Amino acid sequence: MQGLVIKSTGSWYSVLADDAKRYDCRIVGKFRMKGIQTTNPIAVGDRVKFDLERDGITGMINELFPRKNYIIRKSINLSKQAQILAANLDMAILLVTLASPRTSLGFIDRFLVTAEAYDVPAVLVFNKLDLFSKEGLEILQDFKEIYQTIGYPCYEVSALKGINIPIIQDLIKDKITLISGHSGVGKSSLINAILPDRELRTGEVSDWSDKGQHTTTFAEMYELPQGGFIVDTPGIRELGVIDIEKEELSHFFPEIFKTSHNCRFNNCRHINEPGCAVLEAVNNDQIAVSRYESYLSIYHNNDTRH
Ligand SMILES: Nc1nc2c(ncn2[C@@H]2O[C@H](COP(=O)(O)OP(=O)(O)OP(=O)(O)O)[C@@H](O)[C@H]2O)c(=O)[nH]1
Ligand SMILES: [Zn+2]
């Protein structure tokens, strides 16, 4: 039988099979991933094959289908180990607010770089629309223009007042979607608005605390009544920390990458090189200054965290 892993406790996996029934499964043998060592071989979002046991309600997973992508969390102390938080994400939503609290452009850009590196399509959703003044709405238009020009879809909602929620419900239908955002941005409110019945909580993964202790938090996969799942990872405010080589960073800024093909040197860093097409595009307002500043900031710090 085949199915989707909707819950993982480390030793048991809840698999939603193609017959729409749920089976508690264990793993046969070892599943090793090339390149990274993981504490959990299988995560929510994985598609697996399993053999049904005689009892008709439990199973043994014997095959993991190739992942189109996955997001990981590195252990802070156990340096070589990583934990797969979720696999096969169709979309990552970054929830953004322009006031109380204001999300910085740098934060947005770091999220987008990480999403690009993980190969997860990213979308920006601006929340707390009900709080926007006239000036706020103008800033919203500026923000949207920066990101829509690059190709990132932007939406605006009020989770509290229920504005534009059906648009988001439609957007996430039949997809596995990760919702991220910094504290206070309204993630819980949005999930509640989308999914009033929180009883549908369906998954979890364990996690490390900052002190390196192995604690359990809940990265949850909520099944949507209209089809699809939301992955919520409380305590993980971004997609996770990922190591990006300096030389590769521009690959994750789509507009910089596209423009860089016209740089004079093919190893151009886009910092001060003669004939740099990226610098020229920034000067001509074809690339947003804020985006270029984020590029420089990440380049110099080599850091995708806050
Ligand atoms: N005015 C307004 N307030 C909102 C909206 N959405 C959420 N809030 C408020 O913002 C605060 C934070 O909302 P939460 O949903 O708890 O935010 P969160 O992102 O889940 O925050 P953490 O639990 O810290 O991760 C609460 O006081 C909400 O009532 C909105 O659309 N408009
Ligand atoms: Zn260049």
UniProtKB/TrEMBL annotation:
Q: Which InterPro entries match?
A: G_CP_dom, NA-bd_OB-fold, P-loop_NTPase, Ribosome_biogen_GTPase_RsgA, RsgA_GTPase_dom, RsgA_N
For this protein, the Enzyme Commission number is 3.6.1.-
Name the needed cofactors. Answer: Zn(2+)
In the UniProt record, which is one GO cellular component term?
cytoplasm
Per the entry, the cofactor note is: Binds 1 zinc ion per subunit.
Where is it located? Answer: Cytoplasm
List positions binding Zn(2+).
Answer: C263, C268, H270, C276
- Top EC category: hydrolase
Sorted keywords for this record are:
Cytoplasm, GTP-binding, Hydrolase, Metal-binding, Nucleotide-binding, Ribosome biogenesis, RNA-binding, rRNA-binding, Zinc
Oligomeric form and interacting partners: Monomer. Associates with 30S ribosomal subunit, binds 16S rRNA.
- Which family, according to UniProt? Belongs to the TRAFAC class YlqF/YawG GTPase family. RsgA subfamily.
**What is this protein's function per UniProt?**
One of several proteins that assist in the late maturation steps of the functional core of the 30S ribosomal subunit. Helps release RbfA from mature subunits. May play a role in the assembly of ribosomal proteins into the subunit. Circularly permuted GTPase that catalyzes slow GTP hydrolysis, GTPase activity is stimulated by the 30S ribosomal subunit.
Q: What is this protein called?
A: Small ribosomal subunit biogenesis GTPase RsgA
Can you name the source organism?
Pedobacter changchengzhani
